[in-house]
Amino acid sequence: MKKPVERVPYAGELAPYFFAIADKVYAPQPFRPAEKPAAVQALFRLEAARNEIILYTNYEDLRLVGIFPADGSDAYFGWWETVEDIGLNQAAFALLRADAAQRGRPALVGPINFNTYHDYRLRLGPAPSWGLFDREPAHPDYYPPLLARLGFVPRSTFESRLIRRETVPVVYAHKADALAELRKLPFEFIPLNEASWQQHEAEIFALVQLIFGANPNYRPISLAQFRLLYNADYARKLCPHTSVLFRSRESGGLVALSFCHPNYQPLHLPAGTAPDFARDYPRLPRKVLLAKTVGVHPDFRQRGLMDLLGAYGMVHFREYYEEVLFCLMRSDNFSLHFTDGLPMETARYALFEHRW
Fold first, then answer.
1. What torsion do the CA atoms of 122, 127, 132, 134 make, to the nearest 10 degrees?
2. Which terminus of the chain is less hemmed in, N or C, by CB atoms within 10 Å?
């Protein structure tokens, strides 16, 4: 018989069982999402300053984190890992819903690990042909049905689209005008690598906040939190041929960014080893480009820059890659139109909510 679920307010440190539960859930799975305990502990300490955090767990089979932002109206859940047990989850979510109702929160939204800057969403349907790319939502197949049985419905949806080798010539014909426009743009192109990242880090951080600040469920982050994910290790894994910053020649400010890197998953790098383009790209058995983070400054939107960022990436695409995977785009995002009308493989994801 499983232990009952208990309510554990966060008090500055996550106990070892928090990570052991994830180990248990993913032991039978062919994949394991990356979770670095030191980084998770640091993130919880940072977020405790602006959220009430409560953990619901039976210490063995389920963990669920309730997040109550001091400046928000809804409640959130994240860091949810569980065995397939509806009764256990009904007990945990009942405690969380009671806490949310007591605090006047009309809805519970998730899974979201504090912020859309960090991991969130669930993948819907079977695993796609590519298996798993870096930071793609991946979990046991029973997670979405469990949430449905608990009364959750999709709040927003997302897609990843794989364009295969045989389609690449079609992509070039489809985007020929955009490629030609690159020669006439009033922008400086800054290829991204470790050196240029460090040189422009403060500007990149500010641009990320401007681009994504209006996205649903995004909350401003500190430079310290930015560096938990985006740092020198991250810069070394970027593809220097397709990753770029656009700088306005007129204002001198950054106006667009595109962070792309190969899919390093087939290398199965040892735990704790960060990918490095210079070291690892030549060893890849199949060269698949991940178009991960792409965006335009709000003052420069509706000028075709999103298409032009894609065109910049395609200038060197055929020389270095066989396929391209456009990752985790919101279904209502304009950037999704870049690949409309092309043959593709699609994976879908959702963020869920339960209202009362």
1. -30
2. N
pLDDT exceeds 90 at position 342 = no
Alpha carbon 182 to its chain centroid, in Å, reads 28
Task: Render pLDDT for 65-92 as a digit per residue (tens, 0 to 9).
Answer: 999 999 888 999 999 999 999 999 999 9
Structure tokens given for 260: 């792309």
Provide the whole-model pTM: 0.88
Whole-number pLDDT of residue 182: 66
Please answer whether residues 326 and 340 qualify as being in contact, where contact means their C-beta atoms are separated by less than 8 angstroms: no
Strand 62-69 relative to strand 153-163, pairing = unpaired
Report how far residue 70's alpha carbon sits from residue 356's, in angstroms, rounded to the nearest whole number.
20
State how far the Cα of 17 lies from the Cα of 23, in Å rounded to an integer: 10
The two structure tokens encoding residue 1: 């018989």
Beta carbons of 159 and 136 less than 8 angstroms apart: no
End-to-end CA distance of the chain: 31
Positive/negative CA dihedral, 50, 74, 86, 331? negative
Cα–Cα distance between 239 and 262 in angstroms, integer? Answer: 7
Residues 6+ apart with CB under 8 A from 42: 228
Judging by beta carbons within 10 Å of its beta carbon (0-12, 13-18, 19+), is residue 145 exposed, middle or buried? Answer: exposed
CA dist 207 and 253 (Å) reads 9
77: nearest Cα among 94, 93, 60? 93
Tokens representing residue 203 in the block: 């500007």
Q: What confidence tens digit (pLDDT) does each residue in 275-304 have?
A: 999 999 999 999 999 999 999 999 998 887
Answer for the pair 69, 76: CB distance below 8 angstroms, yes or no: yes
* Cβ–Cβ < 8 Å for 94, 82: no
CA–CA dist 56, 276 (Å, integer): 38
Q: Which of 218, 183, 214, 188 is nearest to 203 (CA)?
A: 188
Residue 345: CB partners within 8 Å, gap ≥ 6? 128, 129, 161, 162, 164
Q: What is the DSSP letter of 172?
A: H
Annotate 244-259 with DSSP letters as a single string: EEEEETTT-SEEEEEE
